[in-house]
Design goal:
The structure is a single chain. Helices cover 39% and strands 28% of the residues. With 310 residues, it is α/β, with parallel strands linked by helices. It has 2 domains: 221 residues, P-loop containing nucleotide triphosphate hydrolases (Rossmann fold); 74 residues, Ribosomal protein S10 (Alpha-Beta Plaits, 2-Layer Sandwich), CATH 3.30.70. A 6-stranded mixed beta sheet has the order 6-7-8-3-9-10, sandwiched between helices. A 4-stranded antiparallel beta sheet has the order 2-1-4-5, covered by helices on one side. α3 crosses α4, α5 packs parallel to α6 and α9 packs across α10. The chain is elongated and about 80 Å long. Bound molecules: adenosine-5'-triphosphate. The site of adenosine-5'-triphosphate (ATP) has 12 residues, from β2 and α1. The site of adenosine-5'-triphosphate has 12 residues, from β2 and α1. It comes from Leptospira neocaledonica. It holds the Pfam family ABC_tran. GO terms for molecular function: ATP binding; ATP hydrolysis activity. Keywords: ATP-binding, Nucleotide-binding, Transport.
Length: 310
């Protein structure tokens, strides 16, 4: 559906994206992941026809996006990182305005507005002025604007950044609902947030596509990289470290001291068998005088993936 070949963009002397190659197939939901400055927004602006590339090719269903930017814009719904909302308008006024810009006919206008208000669950706030809405609701208004006219492809730049955990779940559910009918590309700099949403992942680092994989492969990768954060109390840091080193050597784990506070000493444990490590830890702990305070799985970060792939 979208084909990108050797796509590069210079801003003056600055190379923002460097010979990118990837594809999006119909019905996929793809995460474009990268740290700040990786080139995600630049890539998205080029795909959506808002920015010219310096070099390379970008096609939408065989249509060259640089030669046919207006046709491309009709087929893509775009949610920029900061949606261009008019804060003084009500939700319905803004969406009516956006629908007219997208040339949705007066005949279809009201049914289309009802459709997107329903999909984004905005009916309850449709008469409210946008500036009075929470960030989560404003993102939904941006998504409603993006899906007006039922475009084949939806591209969202950081749709969940800045949201609280409850809002993240709501927007994630909304995106899940959209994937039945649309091909979706969304960008993010936070791996755990998009991990559950997408079925394929593109990893962008300093303008280069350093890794791409499907969900199963990423799951394996994350399993290998994820660690356990272990907080123990009852003994000094050095005694705890000696004890934990003994456990680690028996279970093939490696250990890193993280810090010490009023609760206890915290270590990061990397192991290929969490179960074995936990069994060893618990089997000897009652006679050691050491108390387990917390054992929690650590989220894998983008930085860990890049360190492994670059
Ligand atoms: P963020 O999440 O911080 O927005 P990003 O992954 O979206 O990051 P881009 O905004 O695409 O990254 O930026 C890629 C690189 O290009 C960065 O080094 C950035 O400083 C640079 N850049 C972006 N826009 C411009 C511009 N208009 N002029 C010059 N350099 C730019």
């Amino acid at each position: 559906m979208i084909k990108v070949r050797n796509l590069s963009k210079f801003y003056g002397e600055k190379l923002a994206i460097d010979r990118l190659n990837f594809e999006l197939k119909e019905g996929e939901i793809v995460g474009l992941l990268g740290l700040n400055g990786a080139g995600k927004t630049t890539t998205i602006r080029i795909l959506t026809g808002y920015l010219m590339a310096t070099d390379g090719l970008c096609e939408l269903n065989g249509l060259n996006t640089f030669e046919h930017p207006l046709d491309v814009k009709k087929k893509i719904g775009y949610l920029p990182e900061t949606p261009p909302l008019y804060p003084e308008l009500t939700v319905i006024e803004y969406l009516t305005f956006a629908a007219r810009i997208k040339q949705i006919s007066e005949e279809d206008l009201s049914s289309e507005l009802n459709r997107v208000l329903g999909l984004t669950d905005l009916n309850q706030v449709k008469e409210k002025v946008i500036e009075t809405l929470s960030l989560g609701f404003r993102k939904r208004v941006g998504i409603a604007q993006a899906i007006l006219g039922n475009p084949e492809i939806i591209i969202m730049d950081e749709p969940i950044s800045g949201l609280d955990p409850k809002q993240i779940v709501e927007i994630r559910n909304l995106i899940h609902g959209l994937k039945e009918k649309h091909t979706i590309l969304l960008s993010s700099h936070i791996l755990p947030e998009v991990y559950k949403t997408c079925n394929r992942f593109l990893f962008l680092h300093k303008g280069r596509l350093v890794y791409q994989c499907d969900r199963q492969e990423l799951e394996r990768e994350m399993e290998n990289l994820s660690g356990l954060e272990v907080t123990l109390s009852g003994k000094s840091r050095s005694e705890t470290e000696i004890y934990l080193n003994g456990i680690a050597s028996k279970s093939g784990a490696t250990l890193k001291f993280v810090g010490e506070d009023s609760v206890g000493s915290t270590f990061l444990v990397n192991t290929s068998s969490e179960r074995k490590f936990k069994e060893e830890l618990y089997s000897g702990i009652s006679s050691s005088g050491i108390l387990p305070e917390f054992i929690r799985k650590q989220d894998v970060t983008l930085e860990q993936i890049f360190m492994n792939k670059v």
